[in-house]
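Task 17 of the worksheet. Students: predict the tertiary structure of the chain below and write it out as structure tokens. Keep your answer in the requested format; marks are given for formatting as well as content.
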Amino acid sequence: MAVDYAVPLITNVKNAKLLIEALARNIALDVNSIDAQTSHNTIEMPGLVNISTYIPTLQGHSPAYSFEETTKTAVASGFTFASILPLSSEGPTIVDARSLSKAHETLHGSIFTDFAFSVAATEDNANLIEHVSGLTSALYLPSKAFGPEKLSAASTHFASWVESKPIVTDCRTTDLASTLLLASLYNKKIHVTGVTRKEDLALVQMSKEKNLAVTCDVSVYALFLTKEDYPGVSFLPSKEDQKALWDNIEIIDAFSVGTLPSRLAEFLGKPVTPGLGFADTLPLLFRAVTDGKLTIADIISKLHDAPIQILGLTDNESTIEVDTDRLISSLKGKISSSSNFSPFAGQPMKGAVERVHMNGQTVCLEGDFLVKEALGKESAFLVQHSSKLVESSQPDTPLGIMSPLLSNRRSSRFSFDASAAKKASIIGTLRESVVEDGDIPTGADLVSSKPPRELAPPNAISSYIKNNNPFLRQSILSVKNISRANLHALFAVAQEMRLAVEREGVLDILKGRVLTTAFFEPSTRTASSFNAAMQRLGGRVVPISEQGSSVKKGETLQDTIRTMACYSDAIVLRHPDEESADIAAKYSPVPIINGGNGSREHPTQAMLDLFTMREELGTVNGITITFMGDLKYGRPVHSLCKLLQHYQVRVQLVSPKELRLPNNLKQQMLDNGLTVIESEELTKDLIAKSDVLYSTHVCHASITKSQ
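Model answer:
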């Protein structure tokens, strides 16, 4: 009753005593969201977007290595999206479908940020880039790419490039004026990257006043370094230019890392290593906030909102946590190695990125990566095309769900809309030089994070269960064959069903279905939860207990299962015999759900526990879980430990030596890269490090049976 009506229920005697004492002393019982207090200022920001990411060519290293190191440094510095420049130190590198395809093949699995490529314009590739316009985010117009007839060659590109995507250029002075004129004549969006001179900024401002579709970005280095700091450098602004940049900061649409860090390192004879400039970006901008030149809102606008709008991308919904008062050198994992060049080395750089959450999980914590493989996603397919936008109010939009091209932060994560298209293989698409819509997304693709709350049950849920259900007509006997994708699919449906029940009370998804609950051991929570869930979804339950079954007359488990299968669509079984679930599945024509078999496993309880952690903490990755109590015979603990091997977690085991976790299970966790610590006492230090404290009671019956 307490569960059904959401009434607080205290089942722990110690907690009850504490509550009574608090009431007796008139202690305020107000609940707030503060878990800890610190003198540091910690803020949460959306993942940063670098509109100009330069990947240098390194001798002795493959391009894959260069991409991997650049994007890892970017993620650790708070950047979750990188718009990659199509040129290296040798010049333009991505100029047509073949070179773009080669880039994808070479760099597959090496990019940690979400990313998008752009294609570079040359004197003779205007007729080739149209084949990759759908696979890139922008056309890059290098200032040094054209010969004497640069205006004529550039105009050819302006005429052939699509209107929905910007043309990015690094042109300066008169070349910039000519480029802006072409943009006006051809009505194309133009973005000027790496502005350093006040004259160029004045041209951009003038163009904006004429209502031209012009935007610009400035490298963060240009706001803090000048020619006077490094005599002989031509690509840095003068002090007068830098003052003009700060005085007209509202004209600047975006900040970027750009090519300046690499060019400065090369000029000074330093190694041009991947990822230069990323680690310095946020600390420098927070320094400007302290000096009153910027606000936090300015940083978010110019490193997230504006770049997404300029490139026409959808938000990847990532977040970062930044301690604005903490030195980046104090992070556990170093953002960049000591061999990486920084003109600000030795200065106190504050603004440490403590957590990076993207693609549904925490990927970086304290500078250390929690993921074993690169999770970066190609985002060219998410570019908004003005000619293809579909308003959510149109009657033919199923369930009133917005098109993926227009979806907001929450609805872009997940859609039960069967018409949602999954992009085809990028490499295969490039080889055919055709952009095609693919098949319906798989469950793993769709449910990596929370679905929209505005979903209209139960029809959408029923459709999804039928078409994308990895558990359909399958017995659930153990967690050993359940993948992380299966868990995500299950959690997505569970969350939608819960929200639907909150709105509707009782659904009709399982109308006409019958579930048998055969419990040959005492059970309160498991039996009641299956009973309540079945009835909430419109089904019926046939409960069987050992006292009320023919087992008392000598009937075997096999006979009981065969008989109940005739009356049911599925059977939930709890039995003291560890082989019971396998025996039941062998003789049952309907699916068997293991509700606990001896001290071996309890898969449904483990999945529910994992779902609860995910809902309460937002993610499972990166957390510390402390198991306390009977770990030897506690079957939910055994199943949950196996499921946790799909995530990057830290496990602390607290129990008497007689009730320790079985060695084979502990070794299995270690083999899968989990950090495991054992203790016989729950110390204050262990509690302080815990995100979840999982306490299990001592199974007296199991111990007696074992003895």
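Marker's comment: The chain has a mean pLDDT of 81. The radius of gyration is 30 Å.
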